[in-house]
Amino acid sequence: MLTKPASSTTITLWNGREIPRLGMGCWAIGGPFFAGDTPLGWGDVDDDESVEAINRAIELGIRFFDTASNYGAGHSEEVLGRAIGNRGEIVIATKFGFATDPETKQATGAFADDAFIRRSIETSLRRLKRDRLDLLQFHINDFPAEQSDAVFDTLEALRAEGKIDAFGWSTDSPDRAARHAGRQGYVSVQHTMNVFEAVPEMVALIEKEGLISINRGPLAMGLLTGKFTADKAVGARDVRGAALDWMVYFKGGRMAPEFAARLDAVRDLLTSGGRTLTQGALAWLWARSPRTLPIPGFRTVAQVEENVGALEKGPLSADAMAGIDAALAGV
């Protein structure tokens, strides 16, 4: 196990438990799934390798894993269930809202009614081999705020019934995130955040309400790992090659030129203190707010070890953060 993280890289959860301020995002290990011919996964996976990587993360002290009922049409939850099961010391966060067919690996729609939520929870519990869900998140980013009250009424009821311990919303809208902040059991917002997207309004809301900021896309879908060049394309079954409105970091399966320029501007600052580029991107998030909990994706033991290695180096310095702000302003 790595050296115990400093207080700057730990966070206290809603249940009083202190854990390292780093989770593992499990979208990629779900494998392929599709909307018609459009890929929604990150390509083919080796389940044995995924389980080995999960076990290595746990061995190194990681206690938070984030998935969703639709990743790989449920396969991500199944892999986590196989690797972790009902181990009480591990926190599993999952999401609901998007239906998929596990046989065809096709997305079949978005739903948020009470009956669907309850069916989705039972399916997630079975796949994850859990008695109760630690954190259940509403996955529909742009769901109308005024219609979401019934959704969170159901989540409150499920918490009272003992099916879930806490709940949150996966949304990039501060207004949506704020709507349910006063509810008992509402503890987190999952949202895009990385060096290229500082989202100050969302951060201010989360800090004001004492919520947990679960950072998806902390590595900008791989750009902040440094492994992509202008000529390197993703695989044919990789979501980063899909023509989706929200796919800003990649165009036509290759790194978007405007982000390549931004990366060049901050590379040296992110790799200060002996960090890899990946570790610098995570360190930026820890320096940005004490409420952040980044969830970088992974598929291999090596990726897990690099991610976890960032904890020993801690947050970026104030000087490095100011330098990054200035460098990005000049691009």
UniProtKB/TrEMBL annotation:
GO cellular component: cytosol
Domain NADP-dependent oxidoreductase: 22-327
UniProt keyword list: Oxidoreductase
Domain of life: Bacteria
Parts of the chain that traverse the membrane: none
Record-level Gene Ontology MF annotations: oxidoreductase activity
Pfam families: Aldo_ket_red
InterPro entries: AKR_Detox_Biosynth (IPR050523), NAD(P)_OxRdtase_dom_sf (IPR036812), NADP_OxRdtase_dom (IPR023210)
PANTHER family: NAD(P)-LINKED OXIDOREDUCTASE SUPERFAMILY PROTEIN, NADH-SPECIFIC METHYLGLYOXAL REDUCTASE-RELATED
Name of this chain's protein: Aldo/keto reductase
